[in-house]
Amino acid sequence: MLMHPGTLFADAARRHGDRDAVGDGTTYHALDALVSRAAGGLSSLGLGVGDRVGMLFHNVPELVTLWLAVERAGLVRVALHSHFGIDVHADMLRRTGAKALVFDTRFAHAVEQAVYARTEIGAFIGVGDDCPEWAIPYSKLLARGEEEFVAPEVDETAPACVQPTTGTTGPPKPWVVSHRAWVTLVVHNLIHLSAMAPIGADEVNLHVHALQWASGAQTLLPYMLHGAQTVVLDDAVFDPTTIADAIQDSGATGVLLPGPMLAPVLDAIERRAHFAHRLRRLVTLFATPELLERTTRVLGPVWCHGYGSTEQGAPVTRLLAPEATMRAASVGRTASPLVELAVLDEGGRRLTAGHVGQIAVRSPMSCGHYWDEPERTKRALSDEQWFRSGDLGLLDEDGYLTYVDRARDAISATSGDVYPHEVEAAVLRHAAVANCGAVGIGETGAQEVVAAVVLKPGESADAEEIAALAAEGLPQSAHPRVVIVHELPVVLGGAKVQRDALREQLIEAPA
Questions:
Q1: Where do runs of H (alpha helix) occur along 73-158?
Q2: DSSP letter at 273?
């Protein structure tokens, strides 16, 4: 059987043709016609199977159509996360040899300055108001296509998309996902999400976080295959109140919210006298046990917490709310039978339960490679196709994974390694703390543990008070010096802290 992502939505359209696809009355049949027109429009520009197409967007409804059109045309989507600077995008487009760029016109000035005149890209398509004269307006792209576009044959082992990593440990790295791996990822997430509650056609999948990151990869097609509505909320500005409104007003049954974003959304919900919702599946990551318990208290046991990465085909693991009583400190067990999970020692041998080592994953989704970086790929993938994550963790006897931290982020203190993840979780217990990043400063073997803290709007607390509370749950060697800052260097809307950049920020800050 040919694994072709472009056939997935076509099947959904056949099955659910008259249902509202995107929450504005556009049916699955109508969206299918738009997808065909966009695919034909892209093909009319001379783009053929395997050509790379950069996509730079905030969350807008047209992104859904264009994403599906690129898949249908057999093109390779190069996902450009909006939280990176334009120079990073220009470099990614050059590295992957992109032939076209489809962009949100809010990025037009930056694209003109850094991409239009400095790359070999031959076609620019603008989506939104004030499309520049050097780009093709989205409406004209649609006019070039036909409603009966025939999806071409593809080599299922060839690239379907290039998904850059999140860039927390240096510049983002282009990870290549094959057609087979992408289809398998959709199936994996169908199993994963259905474990919380079977997906029905009456559902609403709300995207409030970057669609081209985990929100789309994990949830877009699994919900569409069941005939659910897809509702997209602009993510150009993170506003917890707007997100709370959207959850309630859209009747959302599914949403993805990373822990650092979930906490302020819960704040916004708790400020209300009454909050009605239909949520059945709240997917989160980077959450603490305290945040998960709070989510249950505010919204009910509707969440699942997990672990994964771009290269692994996230999510790898799943912890459901009912499991949290006994397993709150873990990130769960494998999210579907399509994933194998192991913890390895430095020699690549499996460790037994309870021993900390490197987390490794083997699945059809993790059998990719870094674009034009064979040496990096060789270091990441073993001969047995285990993807070595660079993350540390341990498994218990029942297969539940406890995440420890990135191996390279360990703080080298006088008494041994201290893991920032543990410190950050302790600091985040303070009610006034919105986000936190912990790093080691000083010479290897004698680093000081420093936690940089951003306070919630309108809240006040002194550094000593926060440090004292954090110390109650930490060994002496991990007690942090707390520094209150106005902002942290983050990616993905605050979901992850760039610890290298934070270390430089703290070193350069006046004493």
A1: 86-96, 108-111, 138-143
A2: S
- What is the domain range of residue 130? 6-177
Residue 201 and residue 19: Cα distance in Å, rounded? Answer: 8
Task: Note the residue count of the chain.
Answer: 511
Question: Are 272 and 337 found together in one domain?
Answer: yes
The beta-carbon contacts of 418-421 under 8 Å, at least 24 apart in sequence, are 418/449, 418/477, 418/478, 419/392, 419/478, 420/499
Identity of the residue numbered 262: L
Residue 82 forms part of a structural domain: yes
Give the pLDDT of the chain (511 residues) as one tens digit per residue.
677 889 999 999 999 999 999 999 999 999 999 999 999 999 999 999 999 999 999 999 999 999 999 999 999 999 998 888 999 999 999 999 999 999 999 999 999 999 998 888 999 999 999 999 999 999 999 999 998 899 999 999 999 999 998 766 668 899 999 999 999 999 999 999 999 999 999 999 999 999 999 999 999 999 999 999 999 999 999 999 999 999 999 999 999 999 999 999 999 999 998 999 999 999 999 999 999 999 999 999 999 999 999 898 879 999 999 998 888 889 999 999 999 999 999 989 999 999 999 999 999 999 899 999 999 999 999 988 999 999 999 999 999 999 999 888 999 998 889 999 999 999 999 999 999 999 999 999 999 999 999 999 889 999 999 999 999 989 999 999 999 999 998 876 667 888 888 999 998 876 5
Distance CA 211, CA 59 (A): 6
Look at residue 1 and tell me if it is in a domain.
no
Total domains in the fold of the chain? 3
Neighbours of 168 (CB within 10 A): 19
- Please indicate, yes or no, if residue 31 is contained in any of the structural domains: yes
Residues 297 and 190 in one domain: yes
| Residues pairing with 350 in the sheet | 344
* Domain containing residue 36: CATH number: 3.40.50.12780
Token duo for residue 271? 């400020």
In a domain, 72, yes or no: yes
Q: Which of 144, 177, 210 finishes a domain?
A: 177
Q: Phi and psi (nearest 5°) for 247?
A: -60, -45
Dihedrals φ, ψ of 359, to 5°?
Answer: -75, 130
